[in-house]
């Protein structure tokens, strides 16, 4: 089955299938964005510790706080996308 056939079947029920597919894509993008954000946070923290080893504790604390905020935003986005898909399905 080609991608075009999947889109046509999804559009056949008044667009609800397309909305669910969009919600699934949104959840996937939120997960990808969180992964990229956490990777950037980790690499920047490692660079900071390599440049100033005496500030490792402060850098680690800030890194953990920022990583938690990034994960929270990604979790909220995924939950919203799942709620949309369950409401429309």
Automatic annotation (TrEMBL):
Keywords: ATP synthesis, Cell inner membrane, Cell membrane, CF(0), Hydrogen ion transport, Ion transport, Lipid-binding, Membrane, Transmembrane, Transmembrane helix, Transport. It is found in: Cell inner membrane; Membrane. The chain crosses the membrane at residues 62-86. The keyword Oxidoreductase does not apply. Its main location: membrane. SUPFAM superfamilies: F1F0 ATP synthase subunit C (SSF81333). Residues 21-84 form the V-ATPase proteolipid subunit C-like domain. The record marks 71 as: Reversibly protonated during proton transport. It holds the Pfam family ATP-synt_C. CDD domains: ATP-synt_Fo_c. It is a multi-pass membrane protein. InterPro entries: ATP_synth_csu_bac/chlpt, ATP_synth_F0_csu, ATP_synth_F0_csu_DDCD_BS, ATP_synth_F0_csu_sf, ATPase_proteolipid_c-like_dom, F/V-ATP_Csub_sf. F-type ATPases have 2 components, F(1) - the catalytic core - and F(0) - the membrane proton channel. F(1) has five subunits: alpha(3), beta(3), gamma(1), delta(1), epsilon(1). F(0) has three main subunits: a(1), b(2) and c(10-14). The alpha and beta chains form an alternating ring which encloses part of the gamma chain. F(1) is attached to F(0) by a central stalk formed by the gamma and epsilon chains, while a peripheral stalk is formed by the delta and b chains. Belongs to the ATPase C chain family. PANTHER family: ATP SYNTHASE LIPID-BINDING PROTEIN, MITOCHONDRIAL (PTHR10031), ATPASE PROTEIN 9 (PTHR10031:SF0). Key component of the F(0) channel; it plays a direct role in translocation across the membrane. A homomeric c-ring of between 10-14 subunits forms the central stalk rotor element with the F(1) delta and epsilon subunits. F(1)F(0) ATP synthase produces ATP from ADP in the presence of a proton or sodium gradient. F-type ATPases consist of two structural domains, F(1) containing the extramembraneous catalytic core and F(0) containing the membrane proton channel, linked together by a central stalk and a peripheral stalk. During catalysis, ATP synthesis in the catalytic domain of F(1) is coupled via a rotary mechanism of the central stalk subunits to proton translocation. HAMAP family: ATP_synth_c_bact. This is ATP synthase subunit c. It comes from Emticicia oligotrophica (strain DSM 17448 / CIP 109782 / MTCC 6937 / GPTSA100-15). The lineage of its organism: Bacteria, Pseudomonadati, Bacteroidota, Cytophagia, Cytophagales. The gene is atpE.
